[in-house]
Amino acid sequence: MLQKKICMLGGFAVGKTSLVRRFVQSIFSENYLTTVGVKIDKKSVVFPDKTVDLILWDLAGEDDIGSFRVSYVRGATGLVLVVDGTRPATLAVALTLRERCEAEFGAMPFILLFNKSDLTDRWAISEGEIDELKQRGWQIYLTSALSGEHVDDAFRQLASMVAN
Amino acid sequence: MVEIARNVDPDNRALYEGVPAADHRLEKLRQLLVGGEISELSRVTHLLDEPEQLATAVGNVLPEATARASHAQLGEALAPAVERAAQRSIQKNPNTLTDILYPVFLPAIRKSIGEKIDQTFQSLNESLRHIFTWHGLKWRFEAWRTGTSFSAVVLKHSLIYRVEHVFLISRASGLLIAHVTSQDATSEDPQLISSMLSAIQDFVKDSFKEKENSGLDTIRFGELRLWSEVGQFATLVAVIRGNPPEELHEVIRDVLLRIHQESSRALERFDGDSSQLPGVETQLQTCVELQHRDSKEGFPWLVLTAVLLVLIVAGGWSFLSWQSAHRWQTYLSRLAAQPGIVISDQKIRGGDFYVAGLRDPLAADPRSLLPGTEVDPTRVHSNWQLYQSLEPEFVLKRLSASLAPPDSVRLSVVDGRIVAEGEATTTWIERARAAAQQLSAGGPVFDISGVRDVSAEERWQAYVSQLETQPGIIVADHNVRDGQFYITGLRDPLAADPRSLLAGTQVDPARVHASWQFYQSLEPQFVLKRLTASLAPPDSVRLSVVNDRIVAAGEATTAWINRARAAAQQLSAGGPVFDISGVRDVSPEERWQAYVSRLEAQPGIVVAQQNVRDGQFYIAGLRDPLAVDPQSLLSGTQVDPARVHASWQLYQSLEPQFVLKRLAASLYPMDKVRLSIVEGRIVAEGEAPDTWIDRARVAARQLSEGGPEFDISKVRDVSPDARAAEHWQYYVSRLEAEPGIIVAQQSARGGDFYISGLRDPLAVDPKALLSGTQVDPARVHSQWQFYQSLDPKFVVKRLTASLSPPKSVLLSIVQGRIIVVGEAPAGWISRARAAADQLSADGVVLDVSQLSELNLAELNQLREAIQTTDIFFSSGRVVPGPEQTPVLDRLADQLKEFAENAHKAGVTARFMLTGHSDTTGRETANASISAARAETVRALLNKRGVAPELLQVRGAGTFEPAVPENENSRTGNSTNRRVSVTVNLE
User: Which of B199, B355, B631, B970 counts the highest number of beta carbons within 10 A?
Assistant: First the structure.
């Protein structure tokens, strides 16, 4: 049994919860997010030689970085940063959240998801911007909770990053 | 040079032997070449030689050196010194170290004491609960047997629990290290549970700022308890069902400790790969096996059975012999308790029983006492000598047998004396006295003083005098001869039987010889009886005895009167007077006449003709259908209905009471009108509508020809009121049909109308409904309580008022359900959902499933523009320079536009102004400068027409710089001296 704690970070209403809803195993209701501030789901990624259980801590999204509970990130081995592709400001939020985590617990592998890729007409992030981020060697995926596009790929990528 | 050469190579030493060693030029040269090094060397030498200076120098590098030293070696090297130092410190002043360790030990000590107290309470509670029960007794025995305290035994039995799951959770990451579960326990995914458990621990710790280095101790949910023990690297959580003893904490803690001891390094480095910790599950398994059920398991049944078998065999024989001896003893004690039995000797030999003694013939038979004692009669050998017991009850028995006392004498034992009481004949008394004299020698006293001497003659005389007082019995002669009684006389057959009177007189009937002649007594009550039997008087005649005369009173036919008169004549010779003058002779004609006159007195019946012919009665006349039926009057008159021939013509009587009846029948709606006859006139009083009054007037006119007067002047015309009441009822029914109005009570009183009930504030105004109903509003007194109607229409109205839905949302009612369709911001949707939840409790369906989140794309652009705007400041300034004025103007316009657009979309926009500063200067000063900058911008925006309630401010100090500043780059970056704007939608 190989498990890894992964934290999902992102601004308010970027679609973290809907992103995981269809792709993970969950026993807790979404009420936990508003009560405890965190909801825990599990995503098993099967590789030929092993299975990695990603224990996903879905932290309540807040645009106010001040109220972010850093303590929940303790012990995490990876991050899933979620950005709403139709709201550029959420990219800054996600990056700020990552910085706060790294400042507290050191660098850790992460994937950056530009969510809501199905809303092409309202897409607000330019190709150039994404390319620039990719230049930094970041793992970036354009995902859609609606179509499920790239979601599995992203988790698989993260699993292979944290398992090694 | 020579000196150098000498030093460089020993061979040169010989070569330059002649050259002098101390050449001042050489010294000079040395000064020139290595003068700096020499002075530096002397400084270092001086430093090493001077302890003070050396200490300063080493002190400067010591921390760095320690940090760089190999940890293992340094630890070993320092350990003895540190130990000595600690020892010394404690010897010097223990308080210092206590103070240092206090925060470390205190939580542990506190927890330990807490658990101990819990344990004590638990054991006290359980002991109290079981102290007086049957279990309690059993457990006391067990405590005595096992040598433990009673409370420990109570706890052992009453704390029934089972450890169902054990989770070992990494403290660092909340990941599950291992999980074991008891055989039939189930749970959701343990990985998720363990993470959630640690999340909740974090949550509690964060929320309540708990610094203590421990986790949640206990979570309790009904039957389930979660006990957690926090270790250095891992937390152990046990899920326990039932009522566990506090000691279980220690057991769990031990397991956790053992796991830490064995796999400390693996735990510390745990990175989610549980295969690194293979042995842990076996350790945890010991926890899961912990349980206590209230069973008898573990008790040595086999041993017990074997011991029991031996005991049964051995005990069986001894029990049987003990039992037969016991039964024999029971029998003997029963014998000894018997009066008249004296046991002189008894023994058991070879299973047989021997007894010897004295017994009174009147005492109970010893054999008869055997049944019930279960002693085998064939094994009993007895040897009884008869004797006469002088115990009073035996003497009494013997006296009863020998004296044969008559029924009227009662013998009893009183205080050891035998007492005879009652009545007896002289002969019996004399015999008793003789017996008493015999007894006096050694026996109990026989007291016969209480027996009254009654001889048969006396009783006979009493009987005779009783007979003489009997009516209808005349004693002619009686005497006593040779103990026989003779009596002669007369007796009436209706008098009491002389024999039946003998009973109770103690006169022996066999000795009574009676000779009675029958005669007819002339005593009035006998005569009355005989007359009643012979004359059979009709029910209408009553016979009684008045002053020794027999008086008949009532009515009778001539025939009966004649028979009675004959009987009276017979009686006149010596008998009592029979007075029949009180019986009136009634003939059929007379009765007929009585009937006719009754008919004539009836209102509504007019008798025209009547006669009697050949014993038949004929009658003719008029009768009102409302008058009494002549036939029904016949009963009770003793006129034979078969002989009555009646011929009645129906007519309408004009007698007032008949007219009244007819009026009552024809003018029927008369709830409030009362008719009465006043001096031959029919008077109507009360209230009636005009229609009734009209009909009454017509009736009155018809009656006026020959009939009684019908006066309706006292009937009040209530038509206006009635019409008003009708209008009122119409109004009330309109109100009742109105949604959101509930009429509780309404009444009309004295021309005024009163109504009360509930109305929804959103319902139509009841007063507005009055128009068009012809009800005078001035006469309406209403009292309405407000309430909230659950009618969908009202719910929609209220929702519209309370939720203020944006224009893009439409509320409609479809088949009683409220359906919300359209787009709205997320905040509004969640409020609508909350409202739906609340309403569903009241049974109203609010369907919000067709709501979708509002598309805020248009706003987003503006929002982006606002959020990228910064107002910049000069260093140390909290007011922006004049070059910022156009930026502020544009920002104010954007904010206003955004707020307006957001409002149109049904959301409220709020703008957070965050002040920042560069890192120059002290942090506290920077924090206040940043806040002050935000405040200034708020004031400036406010001046430009942005509503102040939309603007919020905060100071971020140096924590959220636009450009990172650190020691390497230059501080005081002007880009960081700014106020930024964040847009939030509500």
Answer: B199
